[in-house]
Design a protein that fits this description.
Protein name: Zinc-dependent alcohol dehydrogenase family protein
Family: Belongs to the zinc-containing alcohol dehydrogenase family.
Radius of gyration: 20 Å
InterPro entries: ADH-like_C, ADH-like_N, ADH_Zn_CS, ER, GroES-like_sf, NAD(P)-bd_dom_sf
Structural class: alpha/beta
Number of strands: 15
Number of domains: 2
CATH superfamily of the largest domain: Medium-chain alcohol dehydrogenases, catalytic domain
Cofactor: Zn(2+)
GO molecular function: metal ion binding; oxidoreductase activity
Number of helices: 14
Length: 359
Amino acid sequence: MKAFVFNGPGSATWKDVADPRIEEPGDVVVRVDAVTICGTDLHILKGDVPDVPPGTVLGHEAVGEVVEAGPDVRSVRAGDRVLVSCITACGRCRYCRQAAYGQCRGGGGWTLGHLIDGTQAEYARVPHADLSVHPLPGSLPGGDAVLLADIFPTAYEVGVLNGRVRPGETVVVVGAGPIGLAAVATAGLLSPYRIIAVDLAAGRLEAAKHFGADAVALADEDPERLVADLTGGLGADTVIEAVGVPESFELCTRVVRPGGHVANIGVHGKPAVLHLEDLWIKNVTITTGLVDTSSTPTLLRMAAAGRLPTSSMVTHTFPLDAMEEAYEVFSRAADTGALKVVLGSPRHDAVSLRPTEGA
């Protein structure tokens, strides 16, 4: 089969690799019909995730059809259309028993495209299938459903829930890329008083308005003043970091109110300064986290009911074998206007293969 293989920092190639096979009784093999590219994949290519060895098939999100299931799999069978979660879970370890699947110690957690071969391929092996793949509602297109493999549960769990977003409060989302936009959209489900989005790109701030932001600020035009003006000088109740660079994290700690929450989602490749000389007295809670995907079934139901703006997130679509072109477009988002790119196989009409926009 063909797959997108990491060769080392700065290099990956769409090439022939061995077909995956059932290795453990709880595995499934999925024929991939739709995949997307995550900002974390770009971090891997930059060398920010040294755990990924050369030769690994990248990708941790997919929609497809089960073609083979191990003898212990009970939740799906061959022929089922499924969402492949970015997190796999053994279901038996201490963390899985607490639904903290991202910290699984039984061979799960974030493994796909990280510690084992991933989903940016024609076929993928998924371990621990009973908790790691989800049957899809027939009404949900693959190009929409694939966004529920990672960015929507990550934004909701690591950003909105960890950040304790509540009705009537002010939320600031720093970073209006895909994960930040998903945070804006899912924060809106909890009826905050105001959502403020901050980004360096005016185009992404316009997108943030579409996804539910009430106010926006360019990152280089004093967003601290805007937050202060809109909160009577108090600061935001919840601030969500959705970039992964020191400047954005430090901005979050400056605009949060005393007693507020900073929820870090971004993948950081460099140290950020924690200004305890200012924060020690402010009763601020700072959370970090890897998504657990415990919310995925709920989000799938909401997406099937039209309650999540998944379609609006997809700006570019490609055939599956255009992986290198798709990475190029996604990595130059400031120039191409890309939010999420989806690649699909035309065999099962998993995603409408529209002409690429903005590339």
